[in-house]
Design brief:
alpha/beta; Rossmann fold; 7-stranded mixed sheet; 4-stranded parallel sheet; 11 strands
């Protein structure tokens, strides 16, 4: 068992439960030790603004945080340590290792998505080449739910619930205001995977309920087929509710959005200032074609930090992933990410366990929705997806509706 200190970082976009993972790491690190020879982990440091905190020597003493603070943080959204979009370069590796040596860090933990897993992997490989004993474990995080090797990622259930409730509540408004607005377009985050827009289907209890159309990045946007589906919904229900992922593309791969800004990882920044979102473009296409009035809704980061809609299961699993990471590291398991494994079948009470996957398999990889979750026309989800998502999101409220049959004189 290595003896030294631990360091924890958060990176990428925040979630409603990323701090629960951090608290799980801290709590378990405090317990780490043996029956003799003292603690395996003496101190616990936090990276202020991700890996940049290591490079800039801005570390926090997480073990000194009060129990009251940590308890509150377990249910606090966003990233308490601060996040980073810094793309690791080869020139960063030597300064990082020098800092880790300075603080006698032997346990390296980061919470994030695939780019974060790549950061851990590269730091570990460099430390190994320099003959420095360092154990590293990643804790998954992303509302996009597109990390390879895990049933779902901490953060997704809460963001999925946010989307489902938004469509349920906003759709009720759209239904009742159809004489004013004939259509609505709601956009979710997610560059290349449709897990979040798909969650909107959980709001649907009858054919007339929203959403009527879901556009996912896994399927190319076919404008003619889409407009025909919009008209059918309007003719049947008096309005049309559409949900789209921010990263939907045309058949040639160009984004439906007009945003061309890219981040340091060469990812399109669909929410960047000056860009035209996919929802805005969809709105324009419908309005120009049918001369209807409608509205678009782009909530962006609210999906990542709506603590009032967080799912308890999500908070608990995020915390458990943190504790599991420390337990694995203590056993010498390194260069892996903690995964969530579903142990129940559809119709059974949801049960989950925890496993691992090699970081090199996760780094820079993506997990799109499988074909079995998407309908043949590419504009809605199947029962298989609903069976997958319902246990994660939990039950939604049921609202009333008037009998709208015309009264007789």
């Amino acid at each position: 068992m290595l003896r030294g200190n631990a360091i924890i970082g958060q990176s990428g976009g925040p979630t409603s439960v990323i701090n629960a993972s951090m608290v799980g790491l801290i709590d378990q690190a405090k317990k780490a030790g043996g029956k003799s020879g003292g603690k395996a982990i003496s101190r616990v440091f936090g990276m202020r603004f991700g890996i940049e905190g290591v490079l800039n020597n801005h570390l926090l003493d997480l073990k000194a945080q009060t129990a009251t603070t940590l308890k509150a943080l377990r249910n606090t959204p966003s990233s308490a340590l601060g996040s980073s979009r810094h793309k690791l370069t080869d020139n960063d590796l030597a300064p990082i290792l020098k800092r880790l040596k300075q603080y006698d860090v032997r346990y390296f933990f980061m919470i994030g998505g695939n780019d974060t897993m790549d950061t851990i992997h590269r730091v570990l490989l460099y430390a190994q080449k320099q003959n420095y004993d360092l154990v590293g474990v990643g804790v998954s995080k992303t509302v996009d739910n597109d990390l390879f090797g895990t049933d779902h990622t901490p953060g997704y259930p809460s963001a999925a619930r946010y989307v489902a409730l938004s469509i349920q509540q906003g759709g009720t408004l759209a239904r009742d205001m159809q004489q004013v607005d004939q259509f609505t377009v709601f956009q979710t985050v997610g560059r290349s995977a449709g897990w979040l827009p798909a969650a909107a289907a959980l709001a649907k209890q009858s054919p007339a309920d929203p959403p009527h159309i879901i556009l996912m990045p896994e399927r190319p946007f076919d404008q003619d087929a889409f407009l025909a589906a919009v008209k059918r919904a309007k003719d049947r229900y008096g309005y049309c509710s559409i949900v789209c992922g921010e990263g939907i593309t045309h058949a040639d791969g160009t984004p439906v959005s007009a945003s061309q800004t890219r981040d340091k990882f060469n990812n399109v920044e669909f929410g960047a200032m000056g860009g035209t979102s996919a929802a805005m473009m969809i709105h324009r296409i419908i309005a120009d074609t049918f001369n209807w009035r409608g509205e678009f809704q782009v909530t962006e980061s609210l999906q990542m930090c709506a603590a009032d809609r967080a799912v308890k299961l999500d908070i608990d699993e995020a915390y458990n992933c943190g504790t599991q990471a420390v337990k694995l590291a203590q056993k010498g398991t390194s260069n892996v990410m903690v995964t969530i494994t579903r142990q129940s079948k559809p119709g059974q009470r949801y049960r989950a366990g925890y496993g691992t996957i090699a970081l090199e398999k996760v780094a820079n990889a993506e997990r799109p929705m499988p074909d079995k979750f998407i309908t043949k026309d590419g504009m809605f989800v199947t029962k298989a997806f609903l069976n997958y998502a319902k246990p994660l999101v939990g039950p939604l409220p049921k609202y009333g509706q008037l009998n709208l049959k015309r009264a007789k004189p």
